[in-house]
């Protein structure tokens, strides 16, 4: 069986030495293309200038660089927006499931509005229209825009999670005299968490990525920092590569972290 | 008559699902402490009827009074009603994310607002009653079907209700586990609680029932004491049904 497997093309390509070799060739190829292309256009690589944008040791002592400060801002922005998006998403999902005609209508209208609106236009609406009316600064407008945009998607995750709890659980809760809100709180929502965790992680990663959009109204997060640094230094290749890797590390860390939590949940149940 | 109102009184109840009529002109009276067994072919409306007793479903017309409380949709008395009426389901409907002890204490603590230690003492008392005190710290998924159903009975008992409804409590169980649940139900019947059981377990019915009810196509066809019901039922349809299920 094993020898027969090795003889197939797939088996050959999946053998450890071949696979590692292929991987190195592919990665090397990508880098070679990038650097060669840059070389051809006479790009002057200045990687040695990058570390100062992460941290600096000056006469005043240790200082975080712009990229780290931007990353912190991105994390803060994303975390705050995600918190409000979850809250709003839960409210919208509960409205949708409430069985009230008006509740469902409001939820569906919200959902359709947000889902069919480019996030950039939504951001402009919040910053240039609602901003002056409600005296929103750019940071608040960004948080609200991201929260509203992602609340629509999160409400669908909540709805699916709540609906995947069997009907018998409602009946069990009702039969011991629980009100609807007690049944949600003690019985249904705790059980729907395990259905919601994987898509919620995806949504959080999505939010971190879409937070880059607020750079168009100059909120000082990671992408804005990248743009500012480039206009100072003209090192577009180094800086965009670095910014991309920082985003990648952040989102991968989130995914891996949540996978751990999921496993813990799986063991508990 | 005024002094002793019936525990359950059902008067001319109809129930529709869309255009399908699930119950037709059903009337039934259950006295305090009475043990009623409802049987009949599947789809005859037995489960629908008892689910109307605690407001899991609502009847379309007629009236249902449980211990003096009128059962109505959106009534403020519904929660009070549900604390008077316990229910045991075919599929147990235990809460899988809570331990057995938590399954039993969550109702008393959150609904009746009693303290944790009191709720736990009560839970252990009723776990003892259903003969599985040693399972308190496990999760429902770790128990056998028969044990889960006994926990479900204990969960209802923990609410200290005056009426217990059983909706085919042994139908989802493996044959070797049916008796352990029926034994608990027989013991429970001896405590004087008002019981309404939908079941096909005729041995159990013979043992505990004060009244047998036979339903078919959403109607109550026969109500009689078990001696008469099992030996000389009035309706032909009931006789045929009994022959079918007692033959084997």
TrEMBL record, chain A:
<comment type="function">
    <text>Part of the binding-protein-dependent transport system for glutamine; probably responsible for the translocation of the substrate across the membrane.</text>
</comment>
<dbReference type="InterPro" id="IPR043429">
    <property type="entry name" value="ArtM/GltK/GlnP/TcyL/YhdX-like"/>
</dbReference>
<dbReference type="Pfam" id="PF00528">
    <property type="entry name" value="BPD_transp_1"/>
</dbReference>
<feature type="transmembrane region" description="Helical">
    <location>
        <begin position="140"/>
        <end position="158"/>
    </location>
</feature>
<dbReference type="GO" id="GO:0022857">
    <property type="term" value="F:transmembrane transporter activity"/>
</dbReference>
<keyword id="KW-0813">Transport</keyword>
<protein>
    <submittedName>
        <fullName>Polar amino acid ABC transporter permease</fullName>
    </submittedName>
</protein>
<feature type="transmembrane region" description="Helical">
    <location>
        <begin position="204"/>
        <end position="225"/>
    </location>
</feature>
<feature type="domain" description="ABC transmembrane type-1">
    <location>
        <begin position="71"/>
        <end position="258"/>
    </location>
</feature>
<dbReference type="InterPro" id="IPR000515">
    <property type="entry name" value="MetI-like"/>
</dbReference>
<dbReference type="InterPro" id="IPR010065">
    <property type="entry name" value="AA_ABC_transptr_permease_3TM"/>
</dbReference>
<keyword id="KW-1003">Cell membrane</keyword>
<dbReference type="InterPro" id="IPR035906">
    <property type="entry name" value="MetI-like_sf"/>
</dbReference>
<dbReference type="GO" id="GO:0006865">
    <property type="term" value="P:amino acid transport"/>
</dbReference>
<feature type="transmembrane region" description="Helical">
    <location>
        <begin position="81"/>
        <end position="110"/>
    </location>
</feature>
<comment type="similarity">
    <text>Belongs to the binding-protein-dependent transport system permease family. HisMQ subfamily.</text>
</comment>
<feature type="transmembrane region" description="Helical">
    <location>
        <begin position="117"/>
        <end position="134"/>
    </location>
</feature>
<dbReference type="GO" id="GO:0043190">
    <property type="term" value="C:ATP-binding cassette (ABC) transporter complex"/>
</dbReference>
<keyword id="KW-0812">Transmembrane</keyword>
<feature type="transmembrane region" description="Helical">
    <location>
        <begin position="237"/>
        <end position="258"/>
    </location>
</feature>
<keyword id="KW-0472">Membrane</keyword>
<keyword id="KW-0029">Amino-acid transport</keyword>
<feature type="transmembrane region" description="Helical">
    <location>
        <begin position="12"/>
        <end position="35"/>
    </location>
</feature>
<keyword id="KW-1133">Transmembrane helix</keyword>
């Amino acid at each position: 069986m094993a020898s027969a497997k090795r003889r197939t093309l797939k088996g050959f390509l999946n053998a450890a030495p071949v696979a590692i070799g292929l991987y190195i060739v592919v990665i090397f190829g990508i880098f070679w293309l990038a650097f060669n292309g840059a070389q051809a256009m006479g790009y002057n690589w200045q990687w040695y200038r990058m570390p100062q944008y992460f941290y600096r040791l000056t006469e005043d002592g240790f200082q975080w660089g712009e990229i780290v400060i931007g990353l912190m801002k991105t994390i803060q922005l994303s975390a705050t927006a995600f918190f409000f998006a979850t809250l709003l998403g839960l409210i919208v999902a509960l409205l949708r499931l409430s069985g009230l005609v008006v509740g469902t209508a409001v939820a569906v209208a919200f959902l359709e509005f947000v889902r069919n609106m480019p996030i950039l236009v939504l951001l402009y609406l919040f910053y240039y229209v609602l901003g002056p009316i409600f005296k929103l600064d750019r940071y608040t407008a960004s948080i609200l825009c991201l929260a509203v945009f992602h609340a629509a998607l999160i409400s669908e995750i909540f709805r699916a999670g709540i609906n995947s709890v069997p009907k018998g659980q409602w009946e069990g809760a009702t039969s011991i005299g629980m009100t609807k809100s007690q049944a949600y709180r003690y019985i249904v929502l705790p059980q729907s968490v395990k259905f919601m965790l994987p898509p919620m992680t995806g949504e959080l990663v999505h939010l971190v990525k879409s937070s880059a959009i607020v750079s168009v109204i100059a909120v000082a997060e990671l992408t804005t920092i990248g743009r500012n640094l480039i206009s100072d230094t003209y090192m577009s290749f180094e800086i965009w590569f670095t910014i991309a890797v920082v985003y990648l590390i952040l989102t991968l860390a989130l995914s891996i972290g949540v996978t751990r939590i999921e496993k813990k949940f799986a063991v508990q149940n | 008559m005024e002094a002793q109102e019936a525990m359950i009184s059902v008067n001319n109840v109809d129930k529709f699902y869309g255009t399908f009529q699930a119950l037709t002109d059903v009337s039934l009276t259950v006295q305090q402490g009475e043990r009623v067994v409802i049987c009949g072919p599947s789809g005859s409306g037995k489960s629908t009827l008892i689910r109307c007793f605690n407001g899991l479903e609502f009847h379309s017309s007629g009236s249902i009074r449980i211990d003096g409380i009128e059962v109505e949709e959106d009534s403020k008395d519904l929660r009070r009603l549900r604390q008077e009426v316990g229910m045991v389901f075919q599929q147990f409907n235990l809460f899988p994310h809570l331990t057995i002890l938590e399954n039993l204490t969550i109702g008393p603590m959150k609904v009746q607002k009693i303290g944790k230690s009191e709720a736990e003492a009560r839970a252990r008392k009723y776990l003892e009653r259903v003969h599985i005190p040693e399972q308190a710290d496990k999760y429902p998924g770790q128990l056998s079907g028969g044990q889960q159903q006994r926990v479900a009975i204990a969960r209802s008992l923990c609410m200290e209700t005056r009426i217990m409804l059983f909706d085919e409590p042994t139908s989802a169980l493996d044959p070797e586990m049916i008796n352990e649940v029926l034994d608990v139900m027989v013991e429970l019947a001896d405590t004087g609680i008002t019981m309404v059981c939908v079941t096909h377990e005729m041995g159990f019915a013979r043992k505990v029932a004060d009244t047998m009810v036979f339903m078919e196509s959403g109607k109550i066809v026969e109500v009689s004491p078990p001696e008469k019901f099992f030996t000389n039922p009035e309706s032909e349809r009931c006789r045929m049904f009994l022959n079918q299920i007692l033959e084997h």
